[in-house]
């Protein structure tokens, strides 16, 4: 699929990515530092835009013809329908840059008050991954042994999951996503973050889409409770683990549950 939005508008706002050719538009969300008036608060006191006045910049991405929109949407719909959660990964290496680019895509997600309340930890140390697996499997064992309750276990039955989580050590890459429940300054000051669950959920959705469209498979794993991850990965107290996402290619003998998705007619209501 070729996305052929052309840059327009004043230079410095929308510009052509170096080496990407004239067809790729990149939106740089903020003007150059030098063009900004003086900050009203310390830039370190919040997210980079906290307390700054509204400073509009033109946003005029090139429109594409409706026929091309229709073709892109139809193709995307088909490709996204092919995404499946994978729990068994091939040992084949995956270029780390693909994962880094997918994380960069996720980090373009919209967020409440543009607070970008996410951290993506790419866990590379095999010993750390081994410890994460041991801790997660210990929690999962308790869960599957009854902590989840009959209703939850019944809901999980069609998925064929259990407490054994080989992907935590065996998938070529492992991303742990944290949500920043509040902003924590270097001096210990705190400020509220808004719509953290929604923002991080959207970012993870974009991460999964980027990984899938880049030809990779992933799993959203939520070993419950996930408190051990903050300590294991040395994250600050304002961060809470949101999901563990192993990434790679499906194993040669990978199988997935025979799930049926709701149809568009079942999920779309038109008033
Ligand atoms: C928030 C969330 C939490 C999930 N937690 C787990 C999990 O802990 N373990 C697991 O094997 N799958 C987990 N999944 C994956 C779902 O089981 C999977 O997305 C669902 O069965 C649909 O399958 P599909 O992704 O192939 O369409 C989770 C998915 C989401 C969105």
From TrEMBL:
User: Does the record bear Transport in its keywords?
Assistant: no
Q: Which Pfam families match?
A: Nitroreductase
Q: Which residues form the Nitroreductase domain?
A: 81-249
Provide the transmembrane region boundaries. Answer: none
Q: Per UniProt, which keywords does this protein have?
A: Flavoprotein, FMN, Oxidoreductase
The domain of life is Bacteria
Protein name per its UniProtKB record: Nitroreductase family protein
């Amino acid at each position: 699929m070729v996305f052929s939005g052309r840059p327009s508008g004043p230079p410095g706002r929308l510009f052509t990515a170096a080496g990407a050719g004239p067809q790729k538009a990149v939106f740089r969300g903020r003007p150059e530092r030098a063009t900004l008036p003086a900050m009203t608060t310390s830039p370190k006191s919040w997210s980079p835009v906290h307390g700054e006045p509204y400073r509009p910049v033109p946003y005029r991405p090139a429109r594409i013809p409706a026929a091309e929109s229709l073709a892109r949407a139809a193709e995307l719909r088909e490709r996204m329908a092919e995404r499946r959660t994978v729990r068994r990964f091939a040992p084949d290496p995956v270029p780390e840059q693909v994962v880094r680019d997918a994380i960069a895509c996720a980090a373009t997600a919209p967020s409440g008050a543009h607070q970008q309340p996410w951290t993506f930890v790419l866990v590379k140390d095999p010993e750390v991954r081994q410890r994460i697996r041991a801790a997660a499997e210990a929690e999962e064992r308790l869960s599957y042994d009854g902590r989840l309750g009959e209703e939850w276990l019944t809901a999980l039955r069609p998925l064929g999951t259990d407490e054994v989580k080989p992907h935590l050590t065996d998938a070529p890459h492992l991303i742990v996503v944290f949500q920043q429940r509040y902003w924590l300054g270097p001096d210990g000051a705190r400020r509220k973050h808004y719509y953290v669950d929604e923002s991080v959920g959207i970012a993870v959705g974009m991460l999964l889409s980027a990984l899938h469209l880049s030809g990779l498979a992933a799993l959203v794993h939520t070993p419950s409770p996930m408190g051990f991850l903050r300590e294991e990965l040395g994250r600050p107290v304002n961060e809470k683990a949101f999901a563990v996402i192993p990434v790679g290619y499906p194993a040669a003998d990978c199988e997935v549950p025979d799930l049926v998705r709701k149809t568009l007619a079942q999920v779309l209501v038109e008033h």
